[in-house]
């Protein structure tokens, strides 16, 4: 790579976002993390730039992108995972909130950044964070999983339309990721963790570094002929 790229990572104050930002930073790229809360502290810890941004608000996105300037790589990592419920129980307002953040937010970010890439002649890259849940249902998580199936479709839509501008769009689809928050909720040796591990042929949850490595790969020159794909990082969970 001849020169440092500017990489914008949404949801950069969280566990997966921090790992992605750190991985790009380690390659020499100029990294900007964006989040609704906690951006300044996270950016200081990582040694990168930070901007406050609400991915569901067009004006907030526009202001933040003006502040960032040229973007070569967009990582749509921000998302909402905390709301769960079975089909017959999930409140309609909760389902709408999931779709607003995970689908509409990804759409708005991709749309605004891609417009600026095209206007600036930037042959850029977009990497979305999806989930194998979009292809493998888990009872009680269908709202989230439906939103990630939509993210996979949005990835293919953006890839086919932006290819003429030299912009590649892909997704990384993890299984359960061992973030600090997940590790607290699923302690090692607990029945809940064992239940998840029993679904994974490789018998381990995905380290955040492995998810980050997949994102960095899809954004790099070694993946220059890959677009429109959703790459599972799931220890083989989709096989069973």
Automatic annotation (TrEMBL):
Under the GO molecular function aspect, what terms does this record hold? oxidoreductase activity
Alphabetical list of Gene3D superfamilies matching this protein: NAD(P)-binding Rossmann-like Domain (3.40.50.720)
Q: Does the keyword Magnesium apply?
A: no
Q: Which UniProt keywords apply?
A: Oxidoreductase
**A Pfam family of this chain:** adh_short_C2
Database matches in SUPFAM superfamilies: NAD(P)-binding Rossmann-fold domains
InterPro entries found in the cross-reference section: NAD(P)-bd_dom_sf (IPR036291), SDR_DHRS6-like (IPR051122), SDR_fam (IPR002347)
What PANTHER family does UniProt report for this protein, alphabetically? DIHYDROANTICAPSIN 7-DEHYDROGENASE
Say which family it is in.
Belongs to the short-chain dehydrogenases/reductases (SDR) family.
Return the protein name.
NAD(P)-dependent dehydrogenase (Short-subunit alcohol dehydrogenase family)
Source organism (scientific name): Actinokineospora auranticolor
């Amino acid at each position: 790579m001849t020169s440092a790229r500017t990489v914008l990572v949404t949801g950069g104050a969280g566990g997966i976002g921090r790992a992605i930002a750190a991985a790009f930073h380690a390659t020499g790229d100029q990294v900007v993390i964006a989040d609704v809360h906690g951006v300044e502290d996270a950016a200081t810890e990582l040694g990168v730039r930070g901007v406050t941004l609400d991915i569901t608000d067009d004006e907030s996105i526009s202001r933040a992108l003006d502040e960032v300037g040229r973007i070569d790589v967009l990582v749509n990592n921000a998302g909402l995972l905390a709301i769960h419920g079975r089909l017959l129980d999930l409140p309609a307002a909760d389902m709408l909130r999931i779709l607003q953040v995970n689908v509409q937010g990804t759409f708005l970010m991709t749309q605004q950044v891609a417009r600026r890439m095209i206007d600036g002649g930037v042959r850029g890259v977009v990497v979305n964070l999806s989930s194998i849940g979009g292809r493998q249902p888990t009872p009680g998580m269908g709202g989230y999983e439906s939103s990630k199936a939509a993210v996979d479709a949005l990835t293919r839509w953006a890839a086919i339309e932006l290819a003429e501008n030299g912009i590649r769009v892909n997704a990384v689809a993890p299984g359960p990721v061992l973030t600090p928050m997940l590790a607290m909720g699923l302690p090692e040796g607990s029945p809940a963790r064992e239940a998840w591990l029993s679904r994974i042929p490789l018998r381990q949850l995905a380290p955040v570094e492995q998810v980050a490595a997949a994102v960095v790969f899809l954004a790099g020159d070694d993946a220059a002929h890959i677009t429109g794909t959703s790459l599972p990082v799931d220890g083989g969970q989709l096989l069973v």
